[in-house]
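Worked Example 4.2. Consider the chain below.
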Amino acid sequence: MLPIEQIAAKLKITDDDLEHYGKYKAKVSLDLAKRVADAKPGKLILMTAITPTPAGEGKTTTTIGLVDALNRLGKQATACLREPSMGPCFGMKGGAAGGGYAQVVPMEDINLHFTGDIHAIELAHNLLSACLDNHIHHENKLKIDARRIVWRRVIDMNDRALRNVIVGLGGISNSVPHEGGFDITVASEVMAAFCLCESLSELRERLGRIVVAYDHQRKPVTAADLGVHGAMTVLLKDAIKPNLVQTLENNPCFIHGGPFANIAHGCNSVIATKLSTKLSEYTVTEAGFGADLGAEKFFNIKCRKAGIHPDAVVIVATVRALKLHGGVPQKDLQKPNVEALDKGVENLKKHIENIHRFGLPVVVAVNSFTSDTDEEIEFIKDKCAYLSVKIIKADHWARGGEGAEQLAEGVVEVVENTKTDFSLLYPDTCTLWQKVGIICREIYGATDVLADKKLRAKFQRLQDAGYGKLPICMAKTQYSLSTDPGLKGRPKKFDVPLRDVRVAAGAGFVVVLTGDIMTMPGLPKAPAAESIDIDENEQIVGLF
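Applying the procedure from the previous section yields the following structure tokens:
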């Protein structure tokens, strides 16, 4: 690793705009973002993927590999990533700093406490929870109905035992008993608002809009009504500054914010993305899960709000994952199977078609495994030939930036020779119900959207309350284009049953829930925490 000031110098960031967190991490001042706000932005590349599988796709690894490769080609390129949550780190997923020779470092710091941003968001969220219960305990002047409290608590850990709890037990001095629960911190609306704001004052205003409960007349009660949004903002005054680190090949990387890609929009902060585009020739960023979730929300929520759009989109696929989508059991994925690819590649084709629907060019990165055969790679190219996209094998996990040079060359060629015609999927003027229908039919390929009379009435109440112009944030499984995680490939002739709808007024979108979406994950039978340790030399082992 190089000292962080040397990495900053590659972006012409001086030490005056850095706040050091040791030798290899720093925050960048918001003053710099203001000073470069009018500069011409560089090219923005979005990294997304096919529908995720247990076989793995490697979106973050490919983002880092592409950035390193672009720099090898003489392009000044920067990565923009989300901050890892410690819940998945100690659970099943492990860390989220890339892998092999395509990593960001210091990996251990990034995957653990980093610069404390997620802790600050957790505290701001729980401050609001504490003040809400305190208000009810002391006179309850806002006439809050304890049965209609919608604001839960958060903790940055996978803990299924906390999903549903009763708070306020133990007598009259411990407030009013009511149902509650915990979500993982990255699912907090505070995180979503944090990642979509562009200034501290805007963050304060967004936090004030958060709906925490309803009174006995069923009118919403907000954080501003409780008078605590200012104090919440104070807790986030340092967290709002983007974090700068480096790749293994000493190229710059902003890691800032990390909203859940199910219940929220799954992208890093607008502040970091915009700052990077003003300082870099190329910025490569990512959106969570497959393109049906992450990319759709990147376009319809983040781009709509920030007034930006990508110049190209890279879709990551693996031969292994496509074979799994074609029905091959996971234990047999290393065996060549062109017949399974014939079915599985339909998933990739649907994602390509979806990106084209937004008027953006696509490059497909086939993240290479040693078990892949040339025949399988050529088969994927042949099956997608009619879509006129470049399909390029990349070997960055094993060889770093050198292994992604062909991918970088393909991306540069597409960006420099293709005119984008970006358009959003729906206008603000569509009703909430219409927006849901457009997403389900056009992006997922569904036949119809199902909701009972009670839920349709709830949609109408939100529409009538003035939330109709907000974009939709669909909360559905990441494992299928449908709402059934068992339907792989490209499902057809399916409906999307809706479970609930709720407003995230601070974040600025309406969340529509389908299936059994968990906002508090649980640990697996053998969590990664059992393998993580520290040796006598203070070296962390078992973290990946």
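The first strand starts at residue 18 and ends at 20. The chain has three domains: 4-115+239-417, 117-235, 432-514. Compare this with Example 4.1 before moving on.
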